[in-house]
Amino acid sequence: MAYNGTQYSGWQIQPSDPTIQSETEKALSLALRTHVSVYGSGRTDAGVHARGQVAHFDYGQIITEDQLKRLRRSLNGLLPNDIYVKEIRAVPEHFHARFDAHYRTYHYYFSESHQPLHSDTTAFFAAPLNAAAMHEAASYIHGDLNCLSFTPFDPQLPHHRCWFFESRFLPPDADGRFCYVISANRFLRNLVRSIMGTLVSVGKGRISPEAFLELFKNPDRNKAGATAPAKGLVLHEVGYDGRWKLPGQQQHAAKS
Q1: CA distance readout (Å), 74 to 31, 57, 67
Q2: How far apart are CA 129 and CA 139, in angstroms?
Q3: Which residues pair with 49 in a beta bridge?
Q4: Residue 238 pairs with which residues in a beta bridge?
Q5: 2-84 against 103-240: fold identical
Q6: pLDDT tens digits for 184-225?
Q7: Which fold has domain 2-84?
């Protein structure tokens, strides 16, 4: 699935606010003429977008390939224009979009100049930013790290560690937009936005790359930077292909 999250209170169903999950369940239940529950690979926050969200639903009847194609067309006709189903396929009976994922990849789009054509999906950070310092700090994000400097403490979690596979910046595109890419086995609440906001603090010289690394070694939320705006964040990909796995195939329980 892909969606522009600007008008939504995140993925997860809320009592009174519109969400991606609620709109998807409503459209799917209409198309199949029975109530259907949809389970996403992760809970994107309010205002966050996706180009590669994955979700699954259980259905008690066999659906042919032609029926799946018609179902996708029907769904996209029922869904709002800012939500789009890219593909529907049959999966093994015990497949779970969240717990079977090996990794998630997020992209964060930002610019040092205002972007009228991308205002919903690009954060603005006033120039100048020290790109070399930001690249150095980003390179420290790899392997098993304690993320408590960048996420609220959650007593329901056994730990606040994530295993990072990738952390890098892409060159600016034709419009001058930069993209930060980060992949991990799981992401905790506000984690990418908090990391991005702290990388911006590094770029502005408020935090050194070494001090950024120290935030993982000795967590202190008060020393991290501000949380970056939600609109720059895109769930780019959810991987089930085994390209990245935890050592020994051991995965932490995925939250989002």
Answers
A1: 7, 16, 10
A2: 17
A3: 234
A4: 104
A5: yes
A6: 999 998 999 999 999 999 999 999 999 999 999 999 999 999
A7: Alpha-Beta Plaits (3.30.70)
103-240: what fold? Alpha-Beta Plaits (3.30.70)
Whether 45 sits among the annotated catalytic residues: the reply is yes
pTM listed for this prediction: 0.92
DSSP H stretches of helix in 42-158:
65-78, 131-139
CA angle 139, 235, 127 (to 5 degrees): 55
Do 246 and 185 form a contact (C-beta atoms < 8 A)?
Answer: yes
Q: How many Cβ atoms are within 10 Å of 63's Cβ, its own excluded?
A: 13
Given the DSSP bridges, would you call strands 103-111 and 233-239 parallel, antiparallel or unpaired?
Answer: antiparallel
User: How is the chain split into domains, by residue range?
Assistant: 2-84, 103-240
Pick the closest to residue 52 from 104, 99, 89, 110 (CA basis).
104
For 193, phi and psi rounded to 5 degrees? -65, -35
- Annotated catalytic residue, options 17, 45, 144, 173: 45
d(CA 202, CA 186) in angstroms, rounded, equals: 24
User: What is the structure's pLDDT at 126?
Assistant: 87
Q: At what angle do helices 209-217 and 191-203 cross, to 10 degrees?
A: 150
Which segments in the chain show pLDDT lower than 70? 248-256
